[in-house]
Design a protein that fits this description.
336 residues; alpha+beta; 11 helices
Length: 336
């Protein structure tokens, strides 16, 4: 999730494990430790644009890395707090602050190497958006109140409420998946792969992507609290198959390997953008839940297979896009 939420979760967990007089220092230590896993964003290469994408949420987010990550955080902070905390207490707060960083990211749709090196698979449970203001606000209020009042019980209460909110997200996911399954059946489609994930900042509007007969179908599904689900039918796009959509590439070429890396990162949900035959996109993400217009992709220069693909972002914050998103979110009819 976003850095603020990661830090707040770390602060809350450290507060929950602190003694009353340690609440304030535990807040700062836990907040720092909660952020440290995302230092993997610094792994970059000017020669390999996909390196950052590949290593973000990688080994630093693994459950097996938690003891070492906490130790690194404690070693960094020891110089500043050694007169106020023993190293054992410092390490405890760092461990608590760091321990759920990877788990929190795994609850989103991006994908996290939660069990590396035992498994290279990316875990993405899709029960909360990468940015969710309600979840963040719950943690923020609890952490601030616990900090000011030296009350660790408040931190524990905040974590409990945040946990309940995540359970609600899981329930909403089940509802949205059921609607997506029914929708595919109504079209006479047999689902081969299905992903349903929350759109940005809410647990009401969901993006559904399923594969059938070599195509991906994308739809928006609104599951309100006190209303029936509403479907906004979206676009479809042909699934990318290297042997069908690209000229033969040398198997060990740089470009062929980049295509394979991006396909793994995208969990196989990849397609060639129809109006840009050199652009391979991640179908899971778009600026609107009904479109296949990409949020990111890679540009492939087929004439130079020895060169890396170029990673591209396509953010659209236009007024028209925002208005359409709000229309879906509020469950209003779409004018054609």
């Amino acid at each position: 999730m976003d850095l603020l939420t990661q830090g707040l979760l770390g602060a809350g967990l450290a507060q929950a494990g602190a003694r009353q007089h340690e609440t304030r220092i535990a807040t700062g230590v836990g907040f720092f430790a909660g952020l440290l896993a995302d230092a993997d964003i610094l792994i970059q290469s000017s020669n390999d644009p996909l390196l950052t994408v590949e290593f973000h949420r990688h080994f630093t987010h693994s459950l097996f890395f938690v003891p070492l990550g906490a130790l690194i955080a404690a070693a960094i902070l020891w110089l500043f707090v050694r007169r106020r905390l023993s190293f054992s207490r410092l390490y405890l707060f760092c461990f608590l602050g760091y321990c759920l960083s990877g788990v929190l990211d795994a609850l989103t749709s991006y994908g996290t190497h939660l069990f590396w090196p035992v498994s290279e698979g990316r875990v993405a449970l899709n029960i909360i958006s990468v940015i969710d203001p309600i979840f963040t606000l719950i943690l923020l209020i609890a952490v601030i109140y616990a900090y000011k009042q030296h009350k660790t019980i408040v931190a524990r209460m905040g974590l409990t409420i945040a946990g309940i909110y995540l359970v609600f997200g899981w329930m909403q996911l089940q509802r949205a998946e059921a609607v997506a399954t029914t929708l595919a059946a109504s079209r006479g489609h047999t689902i081969e792969q299905l992903i349903v994930k929350p759109t940005l900042g809410n647990l009401v509007l969901w993006r559904s992507i399923y594969e059938t007969d070599g195509k991906f179908y994308v739809d928006a599904i609104r599951v309100g609290l006190f209303s029936e689900a509403r479907v906004y039918a979206g676009d479809s796009i042909t699934k990318f198959v290297p042997t069908l959509h690209l000229d033969p590439l040398p198997e060990n070429s740089v470009l062929a390997k980049d295509i394979a890396r991006f396909t793994v990162f995208s969990d196989g949900f990849v397609a060639i953008q129809p109006d840009q035959p050199n652009l391979l996109v991640d179908v899971r993400y778009s600026n609107l839940p009904t479109t296949v217009s990409p949020l990111w992709g890679i540009e492939m220069d087929m004439q130079n297979p020895g060169q890396h693909a170029h990673y591209r972002l396509f953010r659209d914050a236009s007024k028209e896009t925002r208005q359409k998103f709000l229309t879906y979110l509020m469950g209003e009819p779409i004018e054609h």
